[in-house]
């Protein structure tokens, strides 16, 4: 603002007026220069990059400015040196710009090298990680094959167990001989199950039994085999057709077979059963059930 004011005075006032303000402007210029030097020294103490070179160039130019002011006022007998000082100032600015450009180039070069090294490290990590993933994938595929093989063997065994369980069921065609109008629904929840039915014809009638063994799947199927063989033993081998007696005997055989009557018994498995005997001659139906109603 002050510089603009002096310029306005020079442009718009007579020479007799603005010439009186020249010395004031010169003093202001010198004080401004010294204040600038103070700020540059403060920046130098803060170790800002490039300030030292800039300070030398600026001080040199300031010295030539002071020289020209003193020479213009006939205080010293030298010569006008501002052009030289300004040239030196520009020269130092060029040195400063070159230094900064060189520093920037070195920094870019260093960052480029670091980037290349990081890229190489990342590529190596990617290769290592890829190999680790391939090894893990091979292990998973191997485990999957083992699981599939084991699953196939288990399913094959269970499917064969279903054939055995089906062979324990009475023949539907034989049932039609003594129960012409009948309907059978037997659908285990799994491939094999714990539900089974029994039907057999005797001289004076026929017997029908439905049993729900504890457990599902393979455990339940094993119980049905035990229950079916025990029921055949009671009804066919021993000739017992009284439902209550059959249930009593069935309970005893199951407990003895599973050793539930021993002190070291570990099983409390059993079954729910419903047994009907129809005396065709007397036209009497006798029912007995254990947790299964008629």
Using brief descriptors, characterize the structure shown.
8 helices; alpha+beta; 294 residues
What does this structure look like?
The chain is built from eight helices and four strands, in the order ααααααββααββ. It is α+β, with helices and mostly antiparallel strands and 294 residues long. A four-stranded antiparallel sheet has the order 1-2-3-4. A hairpin with a 2-residue loop joins strand 1 and strand 2. Helix 3 (22-45) runs antiparallel to helix 4 (51-72), helix 5 packs parallel to helix 7 (217-237) and helix 7 packs across helix 8 (243-257). The chain is rod-shaped. The mean pLDDT is 86.
Describe this structure in a few short sentences.
This protein has eight helices and four strands, in the order H-H-H-H-H-H-E-E-H-H-E-E. 65% of the residues lie in helices and 11% in strands.
Count of DSSP strands: 4
Order of helices and strands: HHHHHHEEHHEE
Helix content: 55-70%
Instruction: List the uncertain runs.
Output: none
Strand content: 5-15%
Give the termini distance in whole angstroms. Answer: 115 Å
Class by helix and strand content? alpha+beta
Mean pLDDT metric:
86
Total helical segments: 8
Strand order of the largest sheet: 1-2-3-4
Principal-axis shape: rod-shaped
Q: How much is the radius of gyration in Å?
A: 56 Å
Question: How is the main sheet built?
Answer: 4 strands, antiparallel
Layout: helices, strands, pairs:
Blueprint: H1 2-12, H2 15-18, H3 22-45, H4 51-72, H5 82-168, H6 172-178, E1 195-202, E2 205-213, H7 217-237, H8 243-257, E3 271-279, E4 284-290
Antiparallel strand pairs: 1-2, 2-3, 3-4
